[in-house]
Amino acid sequence: MAKKRVNIMLSEEVLRDLREMVPARKRSQFVEEVVADGIRRAKFDRALEILRSGGGLKAEDYPHWATLEDVQGWIREMRSDKGRRAYLAKVHEESIKYAEEREKKGAEVSSR
Question: What burial class does residue 78 get, using C-beta atoms within 10 Å of its C-beta: 0-12 exposed, 13-18 middle, 19+ buried?
C-alpha cells in the first residue's frame, strides 16, 4: 500500500517516550501500527454502540428464523429465483427506508 507523509503533533512527554522506546528508523511503522489498532478499536466500539442501541438483529424482524425448520424453509425459498428476487427487493426497500431515517435524524441533530 502506498504511504503518505503526514505531520502530527505530540506532547513533549509522548515524543520523549517514543524516542526512548522506538529506534529512529522504526518510528513511522510503530506509529502506524498504534494508530491502526486505535482505529480498529474505535470501529469495534461504534459497532457495539449500534448493537446496544437496538441497531442489531431483532427477533421480531426475522420470524422466519424462529426454528430450525423455519430456517431450512427460508433457505430453500432463497435458493429459488422467485424467493431471491423477493428478498432482494425487500432488502433494497428497507435500505432506502433506513437511509431516509438516518438522513432525517442527521437533519434533526444539525438543526439543534
Answer: middle
CA 58/CA 69 separation, integer angstroms = 19
The model's pTM:
0.48
Dist CA 60 CA 23 (whole Å): 56
SS3 39: helix
Is-contact 84 93, C-beta < 8 A? no
| Nearest alpha-carbon partner for 91 in 78, 80, 76 | 78
Alpha-carbon distance 106 to 4, whole Å? 32
24-64 per-position pLDDT tens digit = 999 999 999 999 999 999 998 888 777 777 666 777 777 87
For the chain, what are the domain ranges?
9-56, 58-112
Distance CA 62, CA 56 (A): 12
Q: What is the pLDDT of residues 54-104, one digit of tens each?
A: 666 777 777 877 888 888 888 888 788 777 787 788 888 888 888 888 888
